C-alpha cells in the first residue's frame, strides 16, 4: 500500500507560517492543519508562542492548547496523537497540512523514534550542571563517546547533545549505533514546501516580533503565570519565557531580558534552518507568495491516502 502524501510547510520561527496558513484557509476552508510545535501545546502561553487565532483552534488548527504549563509531553506522545488525528482527517477526505516548527516533533511524527531509555532526572541534572559550567563541554564529551552523533549536532544544540550523552551513559551504547540498529519506517510521504527568508530579513522579523510581543504584554503574561506555576515548570522552558525568568528574579534588567529573547530566538531559527536543509536536501525554499501558490497547487491536486 502506498504511503499517504501530505503537504509539509517548513519554515523557521518568525518566517510567516501562521500568515501563510491563514491565507490558505481563505481558499480551503476545510483544511486541517497540524501544528508540529512543542510550545503551541501549552494553553496559557499565548503571547510568546504565535498561535493561530482562537476561532480556528480545534476546527482548522490542531495540536494546540493541550497542556497546562506544569505538564510535560514528549515527542512520542505528540506524534501518536497527531498521527491519530491525521488518519482521521484523511479517512474523512479532508485535506491536511503539517507545519513543521519543532524538528524533533516532526521527526517523531514522520517516522517515529528509535527505542531509548526514559530520561534519568539525576543523570540529566548532572549533565545540565556540566553544560552550565562550560557550554561547549558536553559536545566535546559527545565527540569522544559518540563521534558520529556529534558530527551532525551543532555544539549549541544543548537538548539533543545532552540527550545523546544521557542515552550513552544509561546504556553504554552510542545513540548513533542504536539508531542504525533500529531503522524506522516513514508513516507518510511529505510533499515539502519551504518559506525562504534571507538571514537579514529573518533576523529583522524576529526583532520586530519580539518587540510586538513585549508591547502586547509578554512580561505581564509571564508575571501572571509565575503566580500560579513555579519557574521550573516545563512550559517556562519555552524560548520567549525562559529568558524572562532572570528578570523576575531580579538578576537582569527588562532590556537585557528582551535582548536575550531576541538572541535565543535567532539561535533557534538558525538551528531549525540547519535541520530543514539537512532533512530536505535539494528541495528549494521559496519566497512567501511562491510558497503559497505552490501549496495551493498541491492541495488542489489532492493529497492523502493513495
- The number of helical elements comes to 13
Second rung of CATH, namely the architecture of the largest domain: 3-Layer(aba) Sandwich
Top CATH class of the largest domain: Alpha Beta
Mean pLDDT: 92
| Rg calc | 20 Å
Low-pLDDT regions: none
The spatial strand order of the largest sheet comes to 3-2-4-1-5-6
Any idea what the shape is? globular
CATH topology of the largest domain: Rossmann fold
Give the biggest beta sheet: 6 strands, parallel
Give the ordered list of helices and strands. Answer: EHEEHEHHHHHHEHHHHEH
Strand content: 5-15%
What is the rounded distance between the termini? 8 Å
Structural class: alpha/beta
- Let me know the number of strands: 6
In total, how many domains does the architecture comprise? 2
User: What is the fourth-level CATH superfamily of the largest domain?
Assistant: P-loop containing nucleotide triphosphate hydrolases
Which SSEs are present, and which pair or pack?
Blueprint: E1 5-10, H1 17-27, E2 32-36, E3 61-62, H2 75-92, E4 96-100, H3 103-111, H4 121-133, H5 137-145, H6 147-152, H7 158-171, H8 175-181, E5 189-195, H9 199-215, H10 218-226, H11 245-248, H12 254-280, E6 285-286, H13 288-301
Parallel strand pairs: 1-4, 1-5, 2-3, 2-4, 5-6
Helix pairs in contact: 1-13, 2-3, 4-7, 5-7, 9-12
Structure description:
The protein is α/β, with parallel strands linked by helices. The chain folds into two domains: 5-113 and 184-301, P-loop containing nucleotide triphosphate hydrolases (Rossmann fold); 121-181, Histone, subunit A (Orthogonal Bundle). Helix content is 52%, strand content 9%. It contains 13 helices and six strands. Helix 1 (17-27) packs across helix 13 (288-301) and helix 2 (75-92) packs across helix 3 (103-111). It starts with a strand and ends in a 5-residue tail after the last helix. The relative contact order is 0.19. The model has no long low-confidence stretch (mean pLDDT 92).
Amino acid at each position: 500500500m502506498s504511503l499517504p502524501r501530505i503537504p509539509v510547510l517548513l519554515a523557521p520561527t518568525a518566517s510567516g507560517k501562521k500568515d501563510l496558513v491563514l491565507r490558505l484557509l481563505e481558499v480551503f476552508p476545510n483544511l486541517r492543519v497540524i501544528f508540529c510545535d512543542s510550545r503551541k501545546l501549552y494553553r496559557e502561553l499565548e503571547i510568546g508562542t504565535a498561535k493561530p487565532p482562537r476561532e480556528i483552534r480545534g476546527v482548522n488548527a490542531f495540536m494546540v492548547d493541550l497542556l497546562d504549563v506544569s505538564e510535560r509531553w514528549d515527542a512520542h506522545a505528540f506524534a501518536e496523537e497527531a498521527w491519530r488525528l491525521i488518519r482521521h482527517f484523511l479517512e474523512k477526505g479532508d485535506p491536511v497540512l503539517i507545519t513543521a516548527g519543532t524538528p524533533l516533533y516532526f521527526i517523531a511524527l514522520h517516522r517515529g523514534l528509535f527505542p531509548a531509555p526514559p530520561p534519568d532526572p539525576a543523570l540529566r541534572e548532572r549533565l545540565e550542571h556540566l553544560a552550565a559550567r562550560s557550554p561547549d563541554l558536553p559536545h566535546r564529551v559527545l565527540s569522544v563517546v559518540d563521534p558520529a552523533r556529534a558530527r551532525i549536532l551543532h555544539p549549541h544544540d544543548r537538548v539533543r547533545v545532552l540527550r545523546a550523552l544521557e542515552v550513552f551513559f544509561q546504556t553504554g551504547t552510542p545513540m548513533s549505533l542504536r539508531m542504525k540498529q533500529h531503522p524506522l519506517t516513514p508513516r507518510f510521504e511529505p510533499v515539502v514546501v519551504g518559506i525562504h527568508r534571507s538571514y537579514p530579513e529573518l533576523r529583522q522579523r524576529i526583532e520586530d516580533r519580539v518587540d510586538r510581543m513585549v508591547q502586547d504584554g509578554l512580561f505581564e503574561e509571564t508575571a501572571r503565570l509565575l503566580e500560579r506555576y513555579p519557574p521550573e515548570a516545563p512550559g517556562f522552558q519555552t524560548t520567549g519565557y525562559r529568558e524572562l525568568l532572570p528578570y523576575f528574579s531580579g538578576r537582569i534588567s527588562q532590556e537585557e531580558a528582551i535582548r536575550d529573547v531576541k538572541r535565543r530566538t535567532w539561535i533557534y531559527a538558525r538551528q531549525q534552518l540547519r535541520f530543514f536543509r539537512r532533512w530536505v536536501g535539494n528541495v528549494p525554499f521559496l519566497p512567501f507568495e511562491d510558497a503559497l501558490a505552490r501549496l495551493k497547487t498541491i492541495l488542489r491536486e489532492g493529497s492523502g491516502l493513495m
